[in-house]
Design a protein that fits this description.
The chain is an all-alpha fold. It has eight helices and no strands. It has one domain: Rhomboid-like fold (Up-down Bundle).
Length: 212
């Protein structure tokens, strides 16, 4: 995976290192420490003007389950997207969607800070739909319809969960998703086709606690 999906590997390693630092310092259970490390806070785009938080918050998580679920989803989605469409396109989708998700979250926060990579992951989910359906190479593959159906199902399910459970920041999810859908329309050059065994099934699941 490291050779075929280097950015996904690097993101997982960095997110894990940050989470280990949070765990060792107790930051994952301390709102003030999370804010100091870069959590999205009310006023990030207004009174505070700390725009670096839009990126920093993507690498922070509120607990081990939050970290584990996002890493698992990133591993599945990021690996497949990067293999199929290349590292550069994956980087654009991931970071642009993540920053937009953070900005949307900041615009709607009232009091609770927000952290997490799920806004960027929702962006990858959204980009997948149009990237595959518009791809001359992949859109007629036998696995395409099944994959898109799974992606749509998991998007719908997680949005319903987000509206049903307190503290889940669905504004970030929707912002990242819309950004990803739009980025899926961008023209792109596809890398050489991967080996057949590298095309994997995707069933992402998210568990969020007081964060994106």
């Amino acid at each position: 995976m490291k050779r075929r999906a280097p950015l996904t590997t690097a993101l997982l390693a960095l997110i894990t290192l940050v989470w280990l630092f949070e765990a060792l310092t107790g930051a994952q259970n301390d709102t003030n420490q999370l804010v100091a490390l870069g959590a999205i806070v009310p006023g990030t785009l207004g009174d505070v003007h700390q725009y670096w938080r839009l990126v920093a918050a993507m690498f922070l998580h509120g607990g081990w389950l939050h970290w584990a679920s996002n890493c698992w989803a990133l591993y599945q989605l990021g690996t497949l997207y990067e293999i199929l469409f290349g590292t550069r396109r994956f980087a654009i989708v991931y970071f642009v969607s993540g920053v937009i998700a953070s900005a949307v979250s900041a615009a709607h926060l009232v009091d609770e800070p927000a952290v997490g990579a799920s806004g960027a992951i929702f962006g990858v989910l959204g980009a997948f739909i149009f990237s595959i359906s518009r791809s001359p190479r992949y859109r007629r593959q036998p696995w395409t319809r099944s994959l898109i159906s799974q992606l749509v199902f998991w998007i719908g399910l997680n949005l319903v969960i987000g509206f049903s459970i307190k503290y889940i920041d669905n504004f970030a999810h929707i912002g990242g998703l819309v950004a990803g859908l739009l980025l899926g329309f961008l023209p792109h050059h596809e890398p050489p086709p991967p080996p057949a065994e590298s095309v994997i099934d995707v069933e992402p699941r998210y568990d969020h606690y007081g964060s994106e």
